[in-house]
Structures are given as C-alpha cells and as structure tokens.
Amino acid sequence: MIPTVYGKRGLSAVHCFDPRGKIILLGVFLVTFFLPLRIGHLGIHLAAVAVLTVVFLGIGNVLRTLRLILPILVLVLILTPPFHREGPVLFSIRSVPILTVFGLVEALRLIVRFTGITLIFYLFMGTTDPDSLVLAFRWFRLPFSVSMVLSIALEYIPTIRIIYDQVRDAHRLRLADETMEARQAVNSGRTREKGKSKPRGKRGHRLAESIPILTSVLILSVRRIPTLAMALECRGVGRKNRRSSFHSLKTGAPMIRDGLITALIAATVVFSIVLFP
Amino acid sequence: MDKEKRRSRIPGSPAFRIASLAILTAVTAVFTYMVRIPIAPTRGYLNLGDVAIYFTAFTFGPVSALIAGGLGTALADIISGYSQWAPISLLVHGLQGLAAGLIASIAWRAKRETFNLYWLVAAAAGTVVMCAGYLGAGTLMVGFSAALVELPGNLLQNLAGVVGAVPLTIAVRKAYPPVAELRW
Questions:
Q1: For B76-90, how does the pLDDT look when each residue is reduced to its tens digit (9 = 90+)?
Q2: Residue A189 domain flag
Q3: Which of A41, A211, B54, B110 shows its CA 20 to 30 Å from the CA of A12?
Q4: Beta carbons within 8 Å of A128's beta carbon, 6+ residues apart
Q5: Res A15: pLDDT
Q6: CA atoms of B115 and A178, how far apart (whole Å)
Q7: Testing the interface with B: which of A85, A218, A220 to mutate, by most B Cβ within 10 A?
Q8: Is A42 contained in some domain?
Q9: Do A25 and A75 reside in the same domain of the chain?
Q10: Beta pairing partners, A132
Q11: Which of A161, A211, A233 lies at the smallest CB-CB distance from B30?
C-alpha cells in the first residue's frame, strides 16, 4: 500500500468525507484560485483552506509541504514584479522601475494562487486513499479499463519498487566485490585485468551506472505482463459477463449528508465570488 | 509450444492491454519517484520518468506511452507530495509520450527495430511537447518568469531521459527479445 494519507486517519471528518464530494470541492476551489478576484478575496479563500489543512493534517505536515514550494514562491516574488511595471513606483534603480504596486500585487496573486492550489491538493490527497479515489472517478463514469489500469498500477508500484531495491542492492554488491578485487590487486602490485570495470566515484557516471539496474527492472517488470493478462482473462476481463467488478462507494444517508455539505460549501464559495468579486 | 501460442494470441485483447498499461504505468511511477540522480551544483535531482516514457514510446507505441506516461508521472507526483502538479503531469507527459510514440512507430512499421534517426526525432518532439507544456502550465500557475526559470531543468531532464532511454531500449530488446511481441 502506498502511504499518501496523512493525519489522524479515520478520526477526522475530512478523512471520512465522501471522495466524490471532495473531487467536486477540489474543482470549485481550483477554479476560484484562477479567477481574477481581488487579492484580499483570494487571501480569505487561502486562509480558509490553510486553516482546514492545519486542523485536519497537522501543522507539521503543512509546514513540510510549504517548505517544498518555498523556493518557487521566492522566485515568483523576485521575478514577477520586473515584468509588471504599471502603477505607482515603490522602488527603482536609475529611474528604471523595479518594483511597482501592480507588480507587487501580481506577485502576491501568483503566490496566493500557487500556495492555495498546493494546499487544496494536499488536503484532498492527504485525506483520501488512492483506492477510494479510483472508486470516486469510476462513479464519475471513468471507463472500466482505465479504472482497472489505475487500480492494478497502484497495487504494482510497491512490487516494482521492491524489485528495484533488490536489483540495485545486487548491483551494489557486485560493484563492492569488484572494488575489493581492485584494492587487493593494487595492494599485491598487480595491474587491473583488461575488460574489468573501473571502480567508480560517488558522483560520476550516475546515469550510466543506473542503466544495467533499470534494464533488469524493466525486464523483470514486462515479463509479468502475459501472466497478469492471463490472470485478468481468467477473471473475465474483456468479456461481457466479467467476474471482476469494483466496490461501490457508500450510498444512502451518509452520501446524502456529504452531498448536502458539498453543495453548501460550493454554494458559499460561489455566492462569495458573486457578491464580493 | 502452447505457452508460446498463448502468448502470441494474447496481445491486443482487452485483458492484455490493461495488464501492459498497468505494469508500464507502475514502472513509470517508480522510475519517476524512486530513481533520482543528484545534480551536484544545484543540489537538485533528475528523475528518470522520461527514460520510462521514451522506452514505452519506442517499444510499446504511442497509445501505451500516452496512458502509461501520463498516469505514471501523475501517480508519482501524488506519492511524492507534489500532487498539485499531477493534473499537469498527466496531460503533458501523456502528450510527450504520444508525440514520441507516433514518430517512433514510423520506424516500427518500417521494421527498423534498432537505434535509428526516427528515435532521435521522436525524442526531440517529446522534448518540445514536454517543455512547451510545462512552460504553459507553469505560466498559469506561477507566472511566465518563474516558469521560464524551470525550462533549463526540464530540458536537462529530457536530455537525461533520451540519453538513458536509447541504450536502455537496446539493452532490453537484446536481453529479452520477446518484449517485441508484447507491443499491441
């Protein structure tokens, strides 16, 4: 299982919230961050998303996410104002405007947008496990074959990761063995045998060193395709009366409750945009 | 003999397509989020997702590269905590795989299965699509100036992808010839 869910799983309301509702709200908030609204309005949306993310995922996780995007935010703050020189000048060098009010507002708008998008995605993905996500997309009429591809890929990622680790470790052992042989040869005064590879430095030839590992990983992976295909055929995939089907997400009262909450939040966001553009 | 017959019969069936796309998607995801090569001067990383995309395009064709490239990199973004880029990766890397795969399939149809000029043209097309896609999407997300700064990194990443994918494809075909039969 791939760890993508953070926070107190199972205890928080957002973790238990219907993934279909989360997808709709994700779309609503994403559109909001791209609308040409006032910076204050966007700031309120960002604050709401940030508070929700901190409450449900914890301040540590949120700070870690923000640290990941910090370099790009700094770049936006430095590089955006010189491209927008309209409005009152705040800072100039030899009468060349470097920082104007419009440039600063534009930089802040981009920072709020990117931070907001990052946090809303983090809140969404950090509280939804990938399998529920596939089921939710399936509910939104994602084709059966694409859902199966996603579902099987999610199961196979840890397997291929293990294969990669094993192959890499095996290659490292071989290299360690060669290095030891080389050292022994140097100590005993013998020269390196022709055709034997040179022990490589830590930084050099990283890509070249990884090719044999990747070749082995790819071969071990693609060899599984016919077996997996036969297994799927045995499960009836590709036939009209197939025996494989997806679970369905919860229905009844919980779905109606989460649906109403989704509608309420989406309506609040839309009204706030219409009333205070 | 039966096994061979069975294997040759399967490619093209819905089950085989799902199986190959799922495995290639998983491989692309693992290559993207696990295999990272440190770049000493910037302390950044090059991921090898593009190696997997170009390998898929050269070996399995445009449709496989479109789906596995897009889904694999999007899943890798989700797993590694950069989920805000997942929709963009889905689209851009998918189109990158499609562009590279369409050109590489010309060589496939001409029965030129080893390294040839089409692979380089395919890689160049994939690079253009990927860099243009990320520049456009980056402009929407963080503005043109910040998106432009990312361009050299994307070019370097693609270059590493091409440099890695060509010997990898040749090595895999040489070490495991039945891989050619898995194309659909």
A1: 999 888 889 999 999
A2: no
A3: A41
A4: A5, A19, A22, A136
A5: 84
A6: 31
A7: A218
A8: yes
A9: yes
A10: none
A11: A161
Give the three-class secondary structure for A91. Answer: strand
Q: Are residues A67 and A177 in the same domain?
A: no
The answer to whether position A252 is within a domain reads yes
A141 and A116 part of one domain: no
Q: Which residue in A49, A61, A77, A149 has the most chain B C-beta atoms within 10 A of its own C-beta, making it the best mutation to test that interface?
A: A149
% of chain B surpassing 90 pLDDT: 59
Write out the residue range of the structural domain in which residue A265 sits. 2-128+248-275
pLDDT tops 70 at residue B43: no
A22: Cα within 13 Å, side-chain hemisphere: 25
What distance in Å separates residue B37's CA from the closest CA in chain A? 7
- How many residue contacts between A and B have a Cβ separation below 8 Å? 191
In this complex, do B182 and A222 lie within 8 Å of one another by their Cβ atoms?
yes
Based on the domain organization, do A123 and A134 belong to the same domain?
A: no
Q: How far is CA A27 from CA A88, A192, A211, A264, B52, in A?
A: 36, 62, 40, 15, 30
The pLDDT tens digits for B95-154 are: 999 999 999 988 777 766 666 788 899 999 999 999 999 999 999 999 998 899 889 988
A246 touches chain B (CB under 8 A): no
Q: Is the residue at A239 inside a domain?
A: yes
| pLDDT average, residue stretch B41-64 | 85
Interface test with B, best of A35, A61, A215 (most B CBs within 10 A): A215
Which among A106, A154, A224 is the nearest to B23, CB-wise? Answer: A224
| pLDDT at residue A195, rounded to an integer | 47
Whether residues A104 and A173 share a domain: the answer is: no
Tens of pLDDT, residue by residue over A32-81, are 999 988 899 999 999 999 998 998 888 888 898 899 899 899 999 999 98
A101 and A152 assigned to the same domain: no
Asked whether the beta carbons of residue A157 and residue B145 sit closer than 8 angstroms, the reply is no
